[in-house]
C-alpha cells in the first residue's frame, strides 16, 4: 500500500494554494486516487468558481467547509452540472489536514469540500479501527496526527495540506453562530493551481 498522506511533502503531483483572508493554505492533490474529484476541483479553481467564496461551516476540532458559491451549504454544483460518484481509496484517509469532498450522502458530490481540523483521535477509535482492519501505519497516523476516521469511505479524500495548516487551525478558532457559520466571513480570495 502507498499512503501518500504520511509523507505528503515528498509526493509529486498538482498542488492548490488557497489564498484566504487569513493567509495561504497549500494542498497536494491526489489525481491518481480521486481523478474526478481532482478534475472537478482544479477546473472550478481555474475558472474562478471559488473566488470570493466563504468557508460557510466551521467547527473547531472537526473541519472547515467551503466551496458553495451561495455560502449557505446548499449550493454549488460539479463541472458536469450534476452530482458525481464517490472515489474511495485504500490509500487515502480523513487524517488531520485532509481535503475531502462534502456531500449529502452517497454519490452526491458537487463543488463543496472541507479540510479536516481534528488534531486528536477520540478515545476508543484506535481499537475500533484495528477491529475494522485498518493498516497499522494509518492507525498510528491517526493517533499521532489526529483526524476523523468515521468519515472514511463516506467522504472522498482528494488532497492533503502540506503548508499553512496553522491557517486552517486559525480559521477553526473563529467565532461562529448557532449554524456553525463564522460571524465574520472567512473568504477564499482565489485558488491557484500548479501542475
TrEMBL record:
Matching entries from InterPro entries are given as: Cyclophilin-like_dom_sf, Cyclophilin-type_PPIase, Cyclophilin-type_PPIase_CS, Cyclophilin-type_PPIase_dom, Cyclophilin_A-like
Q: Do you know which SUPFAM superfamilies this protein is assigned to?
A: Cyclophilin-like
Q: Which UniProt keywords apply?
A: Isomerase, Rotamase
The reactions it catalyses are:
[protein]-peptidylproline (omega=180) = [protein]-peptidylproline (omega=0)
What EC class is this?
A: isomerase
Q: What is its EC number?
A: 5.2.1.8
> Does the keyword Isomerase belong to this entry?
yes
Any one Pfam family match given in the protein's UniProt record, by short name? Pro_isomerase
Q: Does the keyword Cytoplasm apply?
A: no
In which domain of life is the source organism classified? Bacteria
Write one Gene Ontology MF term: peptidyl-prolyl cis-trans isomerase activity
Tell me the ranges covered by the PPIase cyclophilin-type domain, including all copies: 19-193
* Protein role: PPIases accelerate the folding of proteins. It catalyzes the cis-trans isomerization of proline imidic peptide bonds in oligopeptides.
The record's similarity note reads: Belongs to the cyclophilin-type PPIase family.
- What is the protein named? Peptidyl-prolyl cis-trans isomerase
| Provenance organism | Periweissella beninensis
